[in-house]
Amino acid sequence: MKAAIVIFPGSNRDRDMAVAIRQSFGNYPIIIWHKETEIPKVDLIVIPGGFSYGDHLRSGAISALSPVMRTVEMQARKGVPVLGVCNGFQILTETGILPGILMRNIELKFVCKTIRLKVENSSGIFTAGYTSGQILSLPVAHNDGSYFADNDTLNRLEDRDQVAFRYIRTEGVLFGNPNGSMRDIAGIYNDNKTVLGLMPHPENAIYPFNGKADGQIFFDNLVSSL
Amino acid sequence: MIVDTVITEDVVSRHGLTQEEYKVIINILGRKPNLNELGIFSVMWSEHCSYKSSKRWLKTLETKASHVIQGPGENAGVIDIGGGIAVVFKIESHNHPSFIDPYQGAATGVGGILRDIFTMGARPIANLNALRFGDPQHSKTRHLLSGVVAGIGGYSNCVGVPTVAGEVNFHPSYNDNILVNTMTVGITTTDRIFYSAAAGPGNPVVYVGAKTGRDGIHGATMASKEFDKNSEDSRPTVQVGDPFTEKLLLEACLELMERECIIAIQDMGAAGLTSASLEMADKGSVGIELDLDRVPVRELRMSTYEIMLSESQERMLMIMRWESVDKAQEIFKKWELDFAIIGSVTETGRLVLKKDGTVQCDIPIRRLVGEAPEYNRPYLPILSPSVIAAADVPAPQFSLGEVLVKLISCPDTASRRWIWEQYDHLVMGCTMIKPGEADSGVIRINDTQRCLAVTVDSTPRYCLADPKIGSAQAVVETWRNIIAVGATPLGVTNNLNFGNPQNPTIMGQMVGCIKGMGEACKALDYPIVSGNVSLYNETNGNAILPTPVVGGVGVIDNCSKIVTSALRNVGDTLLALGQPANRKDGWLGSSLYLREIEGREEGAPPPIDFVAEKQAGNLVRNLIAENTISACHDVSDGGLLVSIAEMALVLKVFGVDIVTPEDILVHAWGFGEDQGRYIVATSSPMKVIEAALSASVPAAVVGVVNKSGMLTLNGEIIITVKELSYQYEKWLPGYMSYKN
Amino acid sequence: MRVTVYIKIKPEVLDPQGTAIARALSDLGFAGINKVRQGKIIEIDLDKTNAIKAVSDTESMCERLLANTIIEDYSISIGE
Question: Which residues form the active site (chain A) (predicted)?
């Protein structure tokens, strides 16, 4: 089991991701600089969180033009699993590998907190270890996490079971949709459910101390489903 | 040409120099300075860079211990935590710039302190901040608070360093002089620490990072001047930060440091290229010659004066070997940063600046540094006000529940969630204790079982009443904060914020605070390894409260042995350690209770007994290491009842049945702020009591955790945790959305 | 040749920044603010003299990078 992490100038959750992957996979992922055009054969390509290119213009827009993203696109088309978290999700939408776009949070503030998520379907490789409807606690930390797509796209995503995770709306300070995402979308799959983009950070919930480690379970699940 | 500007008395005084100081400059140069030279002396001799009012007192501080690798005097302090790991940390102020432009001022404050840490070879792993704003009702407070928080978050979040702890106070004395003190903690290995002393005549001086523009010219002088009503017009001197470039600079520098390329490195902070080159040359007892035509600039026709005094952000100066230059250049090219050889180290001991083929500055460095003014300013010792006896404070007009709500939801204690949710406190994946969970933030050191506990604290109302006790209290409170999570306190960084030192009362505050801090650090074996002084924090003669901020760092060897403040187990007994079981009242002088309930800011603050502090601290640390206690919180603002309530408010699930001795003065027992106390939760109260007895630490059972979610006192309901939580969480978001 | 690109959020897309600006303006006492939409301006100094070519190049820039047409509209103007 081998993973590769693609990094851009300004990526900043690459180490977090590498540590989380090592904890579950038993080995350290390969690090790929964004200027590279080849990615060795791996079981998983990860685009980590951060502020690539300082979020200038639009989050992920400039990174989407990096040479490595053409390779990621090609590998994704061949069915290599690709995971984009936070800024990685933004980059995947800006390249068009995933539909829609992540807009500025509705409250116009960066938000870092633990939220509750519902697993919408367990048919894709990244959610196969869960049961549909299962509830997880994971942190979010972003400025631009408000998922937007037109109604046709949203309907299509739902019809084809491409919504992987949703925020759970409940009353109170701790829970709810933290960014104003349409239809509470927190993570989506591509058509054949091999590419997942999500805003929450499983890689920041991997130590059981002081709360559940639902992020560790996310990566442990990958070991059996990939 | 600018060099030809005639240096009149007016020009000298506009540079913040006195006529006496000007005479010394003439003596050092053996001639009159040109404008470039005057500008350079002016920033180097400003209060901000020269510490001329505080130096003689700072020298008295305790800065040494066997685990101190580097004390004050470098970019940051360094301590050895064992296992080959060194912790590098420092706190710094960006007060004046943050008042003028809160977003950029706070953001560049974070940028500057981050560079101080990675300049020394350490990767920053935690940010903290200590913020002071004016009266919430003051028209500017909301705008300043939201701008500062957004600026700190905007910069730290983007660079990817978690902001894990901090404190915020409100007081009218900060209406026109907010305080923004930011602290960064980094780690490296003990064999890879980088210093700033230049060496090796002939070696190239290398400039890396962002280009130089006209931003922030004379920021260091600005930070050393009192505000007046024209200050807000001085906006152009506020620097603009670019955290993206900082992130690249951080990665490039750390990558370069893995090779054997760098001889010396210094960030260009206050006074930019001037202070960087002078400090590097002075520390290495060498000279430096720069060719300013080679400095990467962002704007056209920049003069020597402007290039030397610019405070453009995200820049570094390095001395390296010629044979390393190609390799270094390659790394900086990869990270898309400027890299330029702008001069060389010389044997002359002089700073020589050339531009357009002519020498535009020639200063003997050792004399500029060595003959910098140092003042023994007159001061009035501040006498401690009289002690207010608990019996002389009337019982409150309100119910106990109402008092508790007032104290838990007042601006100085209400939940800071609105703030820390805007800070990425999780990036890097090592945050073990988040804001709002305990007295310190705790971060794990990757690939080890070890953690660092970090905290900042100051209680300015105590310092105003009695500077010596107040600043000692700030030190011991950070010490307790670190102990309360299970860590061993190792070292301190300080940020001394005061008004105008030419006022003997202000000077008296500073002297008292430094004395108290020194005594506390000495008594606790808790050395000060770095720090910053910010003076002239006053507007039209109205000074801030004396605010000596203390940042503390401690270490935990086993990350499974950490506790938070959260009450987790129904049936656990709460004990107050350091609290005599038969105590029936408490210390109300200068307390939060006296201010918020009685509207009185007076009385001597609670005294500190260092021996008792050490005994209680060691006891608590042992109890945590032995897994005897499940939660711990130190007792500070608001006393026992506020501390117990805060423990219930972490998880907002369980309540506490509080018990007291008979015939107590409830408000004094409950809200008195006697020092040296912790509340611990345990399932083995007898074990704790026995341990306390043998450690000579008084202990009192103060309650039992219940599942009803009520706070009760001797059987009577005070309030539900749910209601208290609502009040605690409501104030700040409500305030920021104009609802209160 | 100076080309200016104006980018704004499409009318049907929620614009929280515009809404916040509108609210702040009302708070400042400016009456009659119906709606605020915000966006960005990008000025490009082009090494070209042919206006038609400049516009078509700039359109291509907008499609490929400057705007995300899922949520943004753009317009281009040419001049000093």
Answer: 86 (nucleophile), 201, 203
Contact A204 B150 (CB under 8 A): no
Closest CA to C5 of C61, C50, C51, C80: C61
Question: C14–A106: do the CB atoms touch at under 8 Å?
Answer: yes
CA distances from B108 to B27, B240, B313, B428 (A): 37, 7, 7, 21
pLDDT band at residue A225 using 50, 70 and 90 as cut-offs: confident
Question: What is the count of residue pairs from A and B with beta carbons less than 8 Å apart?
Answer: 94
The tens digit of pLDDT for each residue in A75-132 reads 999 999 999 999 999 999 999 999 999 999 999 999 999 999 999 989 899 999 999 9
Tokens for C77, please give them: 């103007």
pLDDT of residue B4: 61
Query: A61 vs C70: CB contact, 8 Å cut-off?
Result: no
How many domains are contained in chain C? 1
* Percent of chain A residues past pLDDT 90, beyond the cut: 90
Count of domains forming chain B: 1
Q: What is the DSSP pairing of strand B629-634 with strand B678-682?
A: antiparallel
Q: How many domains does chain A divide into?
A: 1
Average pLDDT value for chain B: 94
User: Of chain B residues 151-170, which have a CB less than 8 A from chain A?
Assistant: 153-154, 157-160
DSSP summary character for residue B389: P
Closest CA to B560 of A6, A223, C16, A210: A210
Q: Which residues contact B702 (CB under 8 A, 6 or more apart)?
A: B574, B575, B576, B579, B640, B644, B658, B659, B660, B679
Chain A contact for C17, CB < 8 A? yes
| 3-state SS class at B390 | helix
List the domain range (segments joined by +) for residue C12. Answer: 2-78
- The answer to the question of residue B625 being in a domain is yes
Instruction: Give the range of the structural domain holding residue A86, as residue numbers without chain letter.
Output: 3-225
Alpha carbons B438 and A182: distance in angstroms, whole number: 35
pLDDT confidence of residue B135: 97
* Per-residue pLDDT tens over the stretch A172-217: 544 589 999 999 999 999 999 999 999 999 999 998 765 568 999 9
CATH of the domain at B614: 3.90.650.10
- Separation CA B228–CA B237 (nearest Å): 15
- The answer to whether B111 contacts chain A (CB < 8 Å) is no
- Residue B634, strand partner residues: B678
Q: B375 lies in a domain?
A: no
Residue A52: give its domain's CATH number: 3.40.50.880
B451: three-class secondary structure by DSSP: strand
A139 DSSP assignment: E
Question: A148, C17: Cβ pair inside 8 Å?
Answer: no
Question: Residue B720 belongs to what domain range?
Answer: 563-740
Q: Is residue B607 part of a domain?
A: yes
Q: How far apart are CA A32 and CA A3, in angstroms?
A: 10
Q: Are B16 and B225 in contact (CB under 8 A)?
A: yes
What pLDDT does residue B738 have?
75
Is 0.90 exceeded by the ipTM?
Answer: yes
Nearest CB partner across the interface for A148, out of C13, C65, C66: C13
- What mean pLDDT do residues B437-466 have? 96
Average pLDDT value for residue range B7-27: 92
Cβ(A94)–Cβ(A63) below 8 Å: yes
A56 shares contact with chain B (CB less than 8 Å): yes
> Is B709 exposed, middle or buried (CB count within 10 Å of its CB: 0-12, 13-18, 19+)?
middle
pLDDT value for B224: 53
What subunits touch chain B, counting only 3 or more CB pairs under 8 A? A
